[in-house]
Structures are given as structure tokens and as C-alpha cells.
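ARCHIVE CARD
Drawer: 12
Card no.: 0347
Subject: one protein chain, sequence and derived structure
Cross-reference: see card 0346
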Amino acid sequence: MVCHAGRVDRDAHPDYAALAKATRERRLTLGLSINAAAKAAHMSPITWSRVEAGKHVRELTYAAVERVLGWNSDSAAAVLAGGQPTLASTEGPVREQSDGDERAPEPSPRQRFPDDPVLQHLWDTPDPTLTDEQRMAIVQLYLAVKRTADRPSLDSASHAHVRTIRSAM
């Protein structure tokens, strides 16, 4: 109905509500917040929330959700088609513990600025509520402040010259 080699058939009637419910239940079982799950999937919390709200997202997003939730690939398509998700093997990103405790994968570090440790440190700010856009704004703010600080300052003679020109106008 929906599943074609892991792709979503938009002509079929996918059950986005079922996928939303399954995604939320699994995330809560893993003890993940939306922000933590989104970070592990390398997506924004807004995108993760769209999945849990039953909205259609890109197929790559479903693959990332499957990875974070420890589902086999094509689990999202199976749920959209009326089936159930299946857990990945223990070699997947989420390992089943013998006592039933499941742990989420650690997000892999994203090297945005490998040649500049200061910029990378700013990017890696450990606040899970920050989106990539907010992190980039922090980096850009730092760069703007640095550019301003690197400019040669006007000496007092230059300031006097500027005042003279302004008063002449």
C-alpha cells in the first residue's frame, strides 16, 4: 500500500497518525526528549515534532528517526502501511539491555568548523534546546564582534577630523 523499497507512496493513504503514535511511544520508552531525539537524528526539534504530529516529512527524515529509535529501516514505511515497526539488531544504534533498559544512541559530533577550535566550541554549546540556526547565529555574532575588535581604532586626531567635517556640513 505505502511501502515501495522504503519509499512512501503518496497516492496511497498512509497512516501518519499511527507513525506519530509509534514514534512518540518509542521515544518516551527510550527516555528521550524531543530535543535529544532530534539532536541524535541531526535534525531540528521542529522536524521531529512534525513526525510526532503526523505530518509528512522527507524520506531521509524517516530514516534518521528509525536510526534513533533503533528500528529496522523501512519500519516507518511499514507503520504508514498499517504494520508495526521492528527493532533493529543489537548491532544497531540502540542496544537492548538484558534488564530491559534501552539506551539512546549518542549523537556523533558534527564538525562544522574543524580548522577553528573557537568556532567549533561555540557550535558545540551543550544546550539541547538550541537549533542549528541559533548555533549559527552565535557563531556569526562572535565573528562580527571579532571583526569589529580587529579593526584599527580611530585615534583622537582622526576623531577630531571627523567632528570638524560634520560641523562643516
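Annotation on reverse: Confidence is low (pLDDT under 50) at residues 1-6, 90-109. The beta strands are 3-4, 7-8.
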